[in-house]
Amino acid sequence: MPRLLLLCLLAVLLAAGCGGSTDVDADPVGEAITPRPGNDATRIVVGSKEFTESRVLAEIYAQTLQAAGYSASTQLDVGDEKTNLAAVRERRIGAYPEYTATALTSFFGVPLAEVPRDTPDAFADARAGFARIGLTALPPAPLNDSQGVGMRVEDADRLGIRTISDLRRHAPRMTIAGAPECRTRPDCLPGLRRRYGLRFGRFAAVAPDDRYKRLDSGDADVAVVFTTDGQLSRGSYRVLRDDRRLFPAYHPMLVLDAGLARKAGPDLARAVSLVQADLTTSVMQGLNAAVDLDGRSPRRTAREYLDAYGLVNR
Fold this sequence. Notes:
The structure is a single chain. It is built from twelve helices and ten strands. Helix content is 38%, strand content 15%. Helix 1 crosses helix 12 and helix 2 (52-67) packs across helix 10. The strands form three sheets. A five-stranded mixed β-sheet has the order 7-6-8-5-9. A three-stranded antiparallel β-sheet has the order 3-10-4, sandwiched between helices. A two-stranded parallel ribbon has the order 1-2. With 314 residues, it is an alpha/beta fold.
């Protein structure tokens, strides 16, 4: 596929158009992943959780491993993090993408408020925890699927708001929308009160799919969002800068059985490192949008990402 077409494909994928702004570097088409003889003897089933981003990541990892010569496939929608972890430990699947903060809080007993805010520290703690139970965690992708505070761009510009701290004098007159558990989560309403001194006039408990609808209708002024939501790729919303570092980082890492990792050899880690290099937060927003807003399948979306960055030879 010609390089210009690849770049335009990614621009369309990110809903920016070939003449718009994307997360593409000046030279995004990098080193292709190539198969090595003997890798096909290793079979790897990549599982996923039951939401779009996890499915897309599982497809990206599986197609990457296929390109490296492994006998790789996906088993999507295995369940939540504990179900996926059990499936790897019982060798019903070989690997799945997990998030640093999720691993620390769900598996290794770290209170959410004590999860390291620095990515290297969070990953080191998670990797050590997985190693203790016979699993290998590969270094994470740069994307951060954390919580954040979002607004419509036009409203934020009108009020001069760019950081969460900027909300302080406006919050008493504002409605904030979020999931019902936001009332009690330490990284939601209680954290916004404690870390930022924010006391909103009203809290609206909404389903995840309704947060942006509430912003668009004016029924909410701000919303607690996920930083890789597909809607954020369209330019209508702004995630306010977390200037006091309330939200822990959720970077995805491929977690797999340690014995399988040894059998697969260094080609596996190298291929994963190559495919993750351009998986930034804004790129992931575009990939999620391709599925959730544009109706593409996770498999096709993963294939388009790999093609756009020249990561595979087809």
